[in-house]
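During the no-cost extension, the postdoctoral fellow (Dr. R.K.) reprocessed legacy sequence entries with the updated structure-token encoder. One reprocessed record is reproduced below for audit purposes.
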Amino acid sequence: MAWTWNRTWRSMTVVAAAPWLVALVGCGEEDPAASGACSVSSNIDRSATLALRDGSGGAAAAQYEFDAAGMAAGGVKEYTFQITNTASAVAALPLVVKSLTLKELDASGGVAATPQFSCVGPGDLPCDKASWPEVVPAGFDAACAKAGAVTSVAFKIRYTRPAKAEVRKLELALTLSGDVKLGAAAVPMVFQTRLGTPKLSCSPPKYDFGKVGLAEASSTTVVCANTGKADAVITDAKMLGSLPLQAKLEAVLVNAATPLAAGTKLVVPAGSTMNIDLWFDSLPSEQKMEAILRLATSDPAQPQIDLSFTVNAVGPCLGLAPTVIGFGEQPPGIQVKKELLLKSCGTEELAITGISMVEGADQGFSVSLATTCFDGKAPTAQAPVVIPKGSSCAVFAVYTAPKLGAVSQGILAIESSAGTKTAQLSGSGAAQIACPKACMSLQVKGGAPITGAVVPQTEVQLDASCSAAAGHPVTKWKWGVQQPAGSFSVFAPSDAAKSPTFQPNLAGKYTFTLEVADEIGIAGCAPAQYELLVVPDDKLHVELTWDTPADANKTDVGDKDGKLTDGKYAGADMDLHLAHPDAIDQPGQLDLDKDGVPEPWNAACYDCFVLNTLPQWGDSSDYDDDATLDRDDKDGWGPENINLALPEKGLQYYVGVYYWAANGFGKSTPTIRIYLDGLASAFAVKTGPALGQGELWCAGRVSWGPNAVTPCKNADPQGNLVLKSVPLPSPAALKCK
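Re-encoded structure tokens follow.
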């Protein structure tokens, strides 16, 4: 009977003595019963059983980690552990701490020179100097234990933060005697500091795919953002539920049949995001189905994150497209908009009751309701915007980078009769502003690139195609030109065209400038500039311009008669004359100033002007000695040009200006510029007196070889001779005979 009892008791003892913490092992203790202090059957298997619990009362973990950066300098982090003996009181041995050693490592993995961890044992003494009592289970026979035995003993691991938080790792080794199952090995524990705490949030946490047919596919994206100070780690991911949803976390595929492989860790660095793409290709039925993507994370505030998904739910449904809006890198101060569609995807109409940025969004984000659906007015519960089923409405997420290098995150929330959904927003300020670079090229219209000077009246094609921008295309152009005095040529079709034309009608230097901006309004780094010389290629070139004070718009252009579309004239009309010296000898010439010498003006074949544009002078077989009127202008300022490729040497040609028609603009003042030998600057410039209609100004006489300009005969002290009421001959009377 005793044998049977001992056998049964022994079996029970083996079960009770099985250690509850598999990772903890120890060594045996000499049996105090051998001294005769207590009497126990020699058939009993005696052992201590270690139980190690932390301050929460739960089983001690193998590793502890905490944020040192979040502590104040001098602050203390403390872990308390209780050692108890859970063996049966009848068959137990005392449990005794033999040693407790600490090894502290710094961030490089070397032994720390100045420890920040410490161990406090019984009597508040350092663990290596403390006296450790025997630990016996409750009800243990006092005769079998040494004096001072206890039912539990505590020790503390204490961390004290220095002025600057550091990464430290404490390796603890606890050795005990008495637990036969533990043997002689040490019980390991690790304490690890980190610099910061992860803070992981995933948006949207809930998503409704709306109404989807059997053969239809659908997809969405969830963004998990780590706004904490330390890396967040996803250690497990599994898909639950009836919806055949698949997820891709970075490059890892997770679905109902394939959870995240054991030991795989997905890291979301502090301040970064991770996109989770989710989709299904088809559905087994059109019934309502749901799925949950369950994530295990290192975020101490939410070690488990459940993302839920629904399809074919009955009632209203709100779908967002897209759910993730990235603005990329933008220059500070420039407003960028991205469209967000709100889809009514359910079986009933959808009421939008609120649209706003979630509190805590970084600076720079806002929402624009300037769309057809919302008309600039924010919806409310009392005045919702209703979207019929199957329809969509748009809003705009707006981002304006607040400063260079800014990193911005925000959440735009849409409240509706189907619940609240969110869109994740992100953007950043450019590290530096990359301004567009203005660039221009010039060529003769329809011809070759310009490499040198051009002659007056050459139509020039300007082109800004070589302008370039770093991030956005150039879409705005502004041309400018500094012209010779008296020139009012304009760009066609406008100075805002990418490739306008320009006709420099006066000789001289034209300085073109080009300013650009890209599509988001960033102005160019600096204007591009090009200097174009306009040089006559004839030996004699005469230009006329005029200034009419009553003409407020000198650049308006009339038709062939100088009239605008409203029937009014664009400006006053003056005419340039260049007369051959032989003109005064022609029959019928008038002596208008009564000095006994006929005037050269309007002489048949010998006065070049609007009614006689190509007279024949000198050698009849040589066109180079014939004057040509290249341009007649009726719009109000000129220019008019007369050229003579090869003047006859020593002859004095007469230069005059006739006021053909005032057209209601009153008096006008002419200016003559004379170029000899194709030079870029005028040989002579002369501004005459203000003329009235029908008056003719003899500006002077010009000769080539030698080059000279002299006043007309009978000119006043200023070198001017004005003839009144000069009649015009008939065109027939001007023909060469």
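The domain at 441-534 is CATH 2.60.40.10 (Immunoglobulin-like). The longest helix spans residues 2-17. The remaining legacy entries will be reprocessed before the final report is submitted.
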